[in-house]
Write a structure and sequence with these properties.
Elements lengths: L8 H14 L7 H13 L6 H13 L5 E2 L3 H5 L3 H4 L2 E2 L3
Parallel strand pairs: 1-2
Helix pairs in contact: 2-3
């Protein structure tokens, strides 16, 4: 986390381990990754936003019921399928 919420690497590894125990990891194949790049390039996604776009592609692959983010406007640019999944954490 950036700024005042930054944590150390040991804390980060504990957090990641905790997440991995509770969730299923989803990865794109090489072909899926290339297709995602093509799709998001057509939507005008560029720069660092492509990382979030790939998170969105993984959510679509996993047929996620929701994609939680505090930045719904940013994720909405990734198309209507992604926009339909967006939820803001409470």
């Amino acid at each position: 986390m950036p700024g005042k919420h930054r944590i150390g690497s040991e804390q980060a590894m504990l957090f990641i381990g905790n997440v991995r125990e509770r969730l299923t990891l989803v990865a794109l194949t090489g072909d899926e990754y290339a297709k995602a790049l093509e799709t998001f390039a057509e939507l005008g996604v560029a720069g660092g936003a492509i990382y979030d776009a790939h998170l969105a592609a993984c959510a679509l692959k996993a047929r996620a019921a929701a994609l939680y983010t505090w930045n719904t406007g940013h994720f909405a640019q990734f198309g209507p399928k992604v926009a339909s999944l967006l939820k803001t954490p409470k």
